[in-house]
Design goal:
The protein is 23% helix and 25% strand. It has a seven-stranded mixed β-sheet with strand order 1-2-6-10-9-8-7, sandwiched between helices. A three-stranded mixed β-sheet has the order 4-3-5, with no helix packed on it. Helix 2 crosses helix 4 (198-208). It is globular. By secondary structure, it is α+β, with helices and mostly antiparallel strands.
Amino acid sequence: MRRRPLSLVQDDLVDYEKAMERMADLVGRRQRDECSDTLWLLSHPRVYTVGRRTDESHLPDPAHGIPVVSTGRGGQLTYHGPGQLVGYLIVKLGEGEGIVDYVREVELRIVGALGALGVPAERRDTPPGSELLTGVWTSETGRKIASIGMRQSRGVTSHGFALNVDGDLTPWGWAVACGMPEVDMTSVGREAPAAAEMDRVRAAVAEAFEAG
């Protein structure tokens, strides 16, 4: 894996749509070379976000009262909420490097962070004709612990990953996550309770992404 140092920005709870505005500004600045490659770590209040390919039947029952927001990233439905670590990656890709290449790198870096926390994890290749298996799964229990949805514009990436740390997993069951009805979403707290401290997870993720 190539060296790719990132500038680290950290916030606590940020409204999703306000975060999108700030992310768009960071992308524009990176396209103009006004800032360096950046990892922005934060969390969101409860919200479902849906990618361009999300099937209407996968949406949650509105009775649960959680907003559903359309987004320009790849991937399908994802849930965000307190206790989840979101990482937005604003990175200028290298010559001949595509978004799929970078997503593979993101998966491997998250696997490294989870390994440092004592949660063995893995990325998966997608069998022909199957739903994309983008993201990170636990090696021992086969559950999905991190979702990834990204895009690129003029050579700069945006959006990123959502790693479940110690939040309520119930809302994942109110919709079809990632286009996979049978997926079992998990968290660091479910797999390794002693490691589920947000500050500790943030530090492990920042180190894995060479961000500081």
